[in-house]
Amino acid sequence: MMDEGYIKYLCNWIKDKPINPEKLVEINHWRNKLYQLGLIGEYENGIGFGNISIRVKNTTEFIITGTHTGNIETLNEEHFTTVTNFNWQKNWVTCVGPIQASSESLSHGAIYLTNPEVNAIIHVHHRKMWENLLNKIPTTDKNCSYGTPEMAQELIRLSQENELKNLQILVMAGHEEGIISFGKTLEEAGNILLKYYL
Length: 198
What we know:
This protein has about 200 residues and is α+β, with helices and mostly antiparallel strands.
């Protein structure tokens, strides 16, 4: 886990004013819940984990938690940014806001790109759940590291399979403890995740 928590993509960060807090009510509700459960947080070595995003209506843009926010108990508008453009093949992201986008932004982007009906994505870490689900539900190739074009390509591949479309949750084999759920709403994505957690 030596490279965990670090941004691997080229980032075109346009520093700008925060997102309207009214747009962040639901995403913060779920982020707070996941933080309290320990599904988003920080390891003892200071590396944060977990992120959450919502699609900007009828676009491939999305609002996502910023990098290095896993350790913060309660987020505010300074901790979110909007990914306005990305190219997973060329490994770059453009984000606009007060903070750079999460290191997992390409993974979120790949899922939104492949699944027009998906409006919310949750990425968490949980050792026991990860071990229980590994290779039992859709699982990425163990040679694909987080935040890379290879991971984005792997998520696109899995997204085209009916099993993932039906389950809406996957395990990242090459990203220890990493699990992603998604849905038409944050509530749907969150409840799918909690079904496996509880």
